[in-house]
Every structure is written in C-alpha cells, then in structure tokens.
Amino acid sequence: MTVLSMLPPLKEAIVCQLNSETLTDLLKTRPPNKLEIWEDLKIISFSRTMVAVYSTCMLVVLLRVQLNIIGGYLYLDSSTQTPVAPPDVQQQYLSSVQHLLGDGLTELTTVVKKAVHNSLGSVSLKQTMSLLDLEQHVSWIRAEVETTSDRPMSWYLLADEENLLADQACGLTEDDAVTIRLLNETRDMLDSPHFTMVLNTCLNRGFSHLLDNLAEFFHLPSGDPAPDCAPDRSADHLSAAKLPLAKIIPIINGQINTVCSEVPGRFIQDLLMNDQVKEFAASVYEAFSTPQELQK
C-alpha cells in the first residue's frame, strides 16, 4: 500500500460526497433556478478542493506512520520464531486507512462545508476577487476547521477505540488483539505534539501549492507588466489581478485533479519528500524497532 495507490480511491470518495458534476450538468439545461444551483456549486467546489488538500496531507502522514510502525515490528520479527506482525495482521492493520476514506472523510467534509459556507456563503458570484482575497478566505476556512472544533485533526484518521471493540464484539482472535494494539499505538503517535506539527507543516505546504496553482489563472490588467512563467504571488499581483467569483468556481473545482493525481506531480512529491515528514517517520521506526516497544 502506497500513497499514490490510495489517491484514486480517495479522489473517488471525495467526488462521491461533493459531487459538483451533477450541478454543472444541471446548469447546462438552463434551469429556472440556476442562481440557486450556482450558489450550491460555489460551496461544493471550494469544499471539495479544501477537503482534497486536507485528506491528502492526512493520508501522507498516516501511511508514513503506519508503514514505519510495521517496519519496526518486522525488524524485531526477523530475530524471533513467533512474529508479532504476520502478513494477516499487517493487512488488517493497514486496512484501517479506510476510515479516512469513509467515516473520517464524511465528518471532515461536514466540518469543511460549514466553514466554507460561513466564509463564502454571503459573497456574490459577481464579486471580483484577487489571489489575496482567496488566500484570506482559505485562512478563515482553515482557522475554523482546525481551531474551533472540539476534536483534534487526528480524529479523522482512525476510528476510535470504542468502535473498534464494538466491531469485534463477537470475540477477538489473537490477530485481532495484535491489530488493535497496533492501532492504539498508532493513535498515541497521532495524538503527539510531533505529529500535530508535521501535519500542520504539510497543510501549510499543501495550501501554498493550491494558491500557486490558482495564481496561474490570474493575470494583471492589460497594459501592466506581464508576469513570469512561474506563478506570481508578489504583493502587487496578489491584489491587482482579479476575477469574478463565478469564474473562479470552475478553476477551484478542477483542482482536485491536481491534488489527488495518481501521477506524482509537484503537490504530492513535495509532501512525500518533506524533511519533517521523513524525520518523523524515522523517529517512529526507531521507536518501534527496539525490544522495549515489543514488551509494552
């Protein structure tokens, strides 16, 4: 299991929950309530791109943690006759990532949609917005999602202990018990300040890439100096280049194809190669490849 192999099902799950294609197809029929549909499309388009950035960053860090916990146990298993993490346990343990693509994603989507509505719900489709305006709205949405919830961000990544035990109410096998122990150890890592710092670094990089991608669609008024080929996020360009919100919606709506692309582009490569992510993964492996961890 790799991040790249999980991106297509993640994208499919996001599109299923935030289906903008149905709305765009409706608009092509020129319905009498097209303004209402555009308003819905505004919320869904921004929500699904924000959810895509959040969930992709979460997926990157979660899988790094899980694979390095398994790696640590496999190192210990190489010197024992009775492996702690046999293949069946590994498969069951790694399948827990489905929570992020299921119930975790549903909860995250609800929270993000509410924050998007609070930030952009009253903004007219005709209102022109600059990159600076978009950056401000992204900051407001992030602040509501990340700081006003009673739950930590790690809550979206793994099912809670009570659900795990309820699912196993019919009786725990030895493999089940080991899997639950691995998940509890994973949860401890996800609740650590180090994890919070690493995830926040990924989110900052992820949303910065998103704004860079959006910058390519903003051009200064005719007569102003032409920007470089690279996305221009200088102070002048951030505030001077503007588009009506109605034209920004299809642009933001399409960003999920870049964020969740199974072809490793700049967005996902930057997350995977991030030094803090690699250092955190190494510290997880070191913690779980020592005999002391095995005895817990």
Quick one: biggest sheet? Answer: 2 strands, antiparallel
Query: Rg, please?
Result: 22 Å
Number of E strands: 2
SSE series: HHHHHHEHHHHHEHHHHH
Oligomer: single chain
Tell me roughly what share of residues is in helical segments: 55-70%
- Strand residues, percent: under 5%
Our measurement of the CA-to-CA distance between the termini, rounded to an integer number of angstroms, reads: 27 Å
Label the overall shape.
elongated
Mean pLDDT: 85
Query: What structural class do you assign from the helix and strand content?
Result: mainly alpha
Uncertain regions spanning at least 5 consecutive residues: none
Structure description:
The chain has 16 helices and two strands. It has helices spanning 3-17, 20-28, 34-77, 87-94, 98-101, 103-120, 131-147, 161-167, 174-190, 193-215, 235-240, 245-253, 256-259, 266-272, 275-288, 291-294, and strands spanning 128-130, 242-244. Strands 1-2 form a two-stranded antiparallel sheet. α3 crosses α15 (275-288), α4 crosses α9 (174-190) and α6 (103-120) packs across α7. The model has no long low-confidence stretch (mean pLDDT 85).
Provide a quick synopsis of the model.
The protein has 296 residues and is an all-alpha fold.
Tag the structure with descriptive keywords.
single chain; about 300 residues; mainly alpha; 2 strands; about 70% helix
Layout of helices and strands, plus pairs?
Elements: H1 3-17, H2 20-28, H3 34-77, H4 87-94, H5 98-101, H6 103-120, E1 128-130, H7 131-147, H8 161-167, H9 174-190, H10 193-215, H11 235-240, E2 242-244, H12 245-253, H13 256-259, H14 266-272, H15 275-288, H16 291-294
Antiparallel strand pairs: 1-2
Helix pairs in contact: 1-3, 2-3, 3-6, 3-9, 3-10, 3-12, 3-15, 4-9, 6-7, 7-10, 10-14
